[in-house]
Structure formats: C-alpha cells, structure tokens
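cron nightly-structures :: item 1 of 1
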Amino acid sequence: MDADWTKWLPPVLRKHLVGRHNLQAVLGNSSWLLLDKVVRMALGVVVGAMVARYLGPTQFGQLNYAAAFVVLFSAFATLGLDSIVVRDLVRRQEHREKILGSAFSLKLIGALLSLAMAETAIRLLQPGDAKMHLLVGITAAALVFQAFDVIDFLFQSRVQSKPIVLVRMISFVLFSFVKLALILTLASLIEFAWAALGEVALAALGFVWVYQRFFGAKWFGFGDLSTVRSLLKESWPFLLSSLAVMVYMRIDQIMLASAVGPYEVGLYSAALRLSEIWYVIPMAIVGSVAPSLTATHDQSRTVYYGRLQRLFTSLVKLAYLVAVPMSLLSTPLIVLLFGRQYAGAGPVLAIHIWTAVFVFMGVATGPWVINEGLGRIQFYRTVFGAITNILLNLYLIPRYGAIGAAIATLLSQAVAVYFSFVFLSRTREVFGMMTKAMLLRP
C-alpha cells in the first residue's frame, strides 16, 4: 500500500512512486528530517544573530570558545558508535534491546568522561578564569543527555524519524523563545549557556517518552558485556577518527583565541553560523538513505555503487547551490543579520562556505566506509586532515586572523575528504566517483 502523503503529489510525480514502497519510505523520512533542518536553519539563524548582536563579538566569542573547547572532548561521548548502531539495528532487529542498552551505557560513560576531561583541561589552561570554567562545565553537561540519542538511532534504522523530529523541533523552538526572553531581560552570558543545556535535556526526555509510546517498553536496559565488547571492537577506529574530526573542525577557534583573542573568535563564529548551518542537509539525506544503501550492499554491488554515485552527485550539486550565492553575498548577509560590528566576518564566510563541497561528500562517504569495514582508513585520512589543519593554522592565523583560519579549514577539508582517497587502491574508485560528482559528470 502506498504512503498516504503520495496522494497530495502531482500526478507526474506520483506515477514514479507507485508501488515503490522503499523509495516512499526514504523520501517521507527525508522530508521530516529536512523539515527539522529547515526550521533550525531559519529560526536558528535569526535567533543566533540576535544573540550575537546582544552579546557583541567578544562575549559571543567566549560562548563559542567554550563550545569549541568541549567539542574537542566530545568524541569520547559518541565513541564512534552512531552509524554502527544504526547498521546493527537494521541487520539484527531481534537484538534491539541489547544493542540499544549497550550503546546507551557506553555513551553515558563516555559523556561523563568527556565532562571530567573538559573541565579539568580548562582549569589547567585558564586557572584564573572562573567564568570560562562555568561555561565549559555547563556546555559539557549537554553531552550526558546526548546518550539518549540511541533512541534516535532506533527510529533511523526503521526509516521512521517523524517522532524524533517532532521532539527535536519542539525543544528547539521552545528554547529559541527562551533565548529571546533572555535578550529582553538583559540576561548574562552564563544564562545563555544554561538555555542551550535546557534544550538538549528537554529533547532527551522527549526521546524517552517517544520510545515508551511507540514500543510499549519502560526501558531497554543497559545491554550486556558481549554486545559492549562487540561495539567497542568495531567502533574504536571511528572514535579516533571522530577525535581527529573534532580537532580539525574546532581547533581553529581555540588557536584564534590564543593568538588574537575572543573578538576575532566572535567574527569567525558569526561566519560559521551561516556556513555550517547547511551541513545538516547532507546529514538528513544520508541518514535516510544509509539503511537502504546497507541493504543494497548485501544484494547487488552494481546497484549499490550506482546509488552511491547518484548520492555524491546530488549532494555536490546542492553544495554548489549553497556556496555560490553565499560567497557572492557574504558581507551584505553578515551585516544584515549580525550588524556592522560583525562586518569583518564577510570575507571569512566567502571562503569558509566552500567547505560545504567537501563536507557534503564526506558525509556521503560515511555509509560506504561502514559497509566496507574501512574504519581504519577513515581514521588515517581524518588524522591527515587534522595535522594539515593545525599546521596551516599555525602559519595563517598570526598573519590573517579569522580569514587565515577559514583558508586552513577549507584546505584541510579537501585533504581529509578528497585527496586522501587517491593514495590507496581500495579507496581510489570512490575518489573517481567524487571527482565525477565535482565535475557534474552524469
């Protein structure tokens, strides 16, 4: 039976979906995920810009510095488990509770470890800055609630993200209004950090309610030792690669703060708000397509690589559609949203937005890496990108400030996502597929 929503489509589109229930499920699921991302993009940019205007570049830079600092330790909270858990839930549905419980236990322990490490590190690096200690502690506490994301993985594996999307949207919209209220009441910087934590906590409670509502279970337990070992055995390369990703995605803000101060971090963070917000698009699309790719991988390699090529090409086209106008209109957009005090972020955005091309392709390689069992290669290429980013930042930031950080990020993304695939025979085919996608070859 065809999905109910297909009846609202024009006949020319509906005829291509009749009887294709798997495609209908993917499109329906992607639509909900994209709706969530659109709401976050629209409301997030507006509210984020208002918060940035209110705080000013220096305090906005401090808030984003704390977030970037925590991100450096967040890989220990995710443990590289996300895609592996989704895949196992697709393949071993009869062991749902064991997989969920084991993943939850690992993520909870990892989150507490991340919180302790982040707070210890900031106290050692900035012993006299009590405000930064508190900012980092509040921001890192959100990692504990993200352990409940395992419930999201369950719905992803079933290509049924609607309930999770609704929970996330409600929490996000509610706390967006909370942030507006904080602006109106002239709140302090710390109170904005508490609002961000509240959003994650409310979403976690919503996930628990959704799980109970749809599966009639009070809790899925804490797993078993054998499943924990199995997950850790496969996930450690992804943990290390995630750690490297976090380094080369956020070390620029840490190095900017050390070299030129929080004001420059504020400008750079404003540019990132308009650049990185687009990254949710490939995540939503690939999150819906991944279960289907996994199933196809086990059935037909020809069909599998055909679909993978179409995924690369589609995502690169989307990246171009984003990067070209954003690059051309970067400074007017920054001034319109953040005010004249952030005008220096315009050239930063014009450069950084082009990382979307490589980020979109990098997200698309995720299912391929998982399905081929190439976690170690993922780790090596990410470390290569992280080292490239650090070296480029050391050279470019003292000379060009935030613009230098944007150049370093763009080049290191190209190295990690694209050029690293040319060196090994097992990855060279995907390098060719990405090249075709960037050249828009059919």
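cron nightly-structures :: done
The mean pLDDT is 85.
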